[in-house]
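Expect sequence, tokenised fold; for instance:
***
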Amino acid sequence: MTEIIAKAYLILSRAHTPESDIFLRVYGQAGQIRILVPSELNLSAGLFEPGNLIWIEIKQSGDWAVLKDISRVEMISLLALRDYERYLWICYIINFVKRWFYHFDKNLFEFILKQLKKQPSEPTIDRLKFELEAIEILGLYSDKNLPNQILNEIKLIKSGKLGPIKPEIVSKIREYIYSQLSTLE
């Protein structure tokens, strides 16, 4: 088993066991990992909500780690209580991270935390902007083979100067984004 010093991890999901233990899926310094929280450290279910940022000490063995200590918690998940749009935004970011980000990147991690704390204004545009910025951070963005119409819309999205967007344009931009992300698999 390897000891890891207290580092920040974003909680992506949690599951309870019949023995009162908790299984967490987190993203942080070690990439995406699974952590067992023994029942004696399960002080409050509120600490282990998806979206929270925890600084923890773990012992790792293979694909699993065991929680040894918690030094700090930033309860980002509480932002979801403000309004339904914020709740949907936080869920979207967490699910996107679970699906696409397996290896740690400091810039990506900081970007994710910033986005989780953001108040979304226009869900479709905010999601496209998030996805475009994410693939840019990952080095997957290239506008070389994009049609001018799509490229112009992407530039407007990135600049924040875009109003309502046609569903067919959204579909084409998403198709491009997911084709870039699929190279990660």
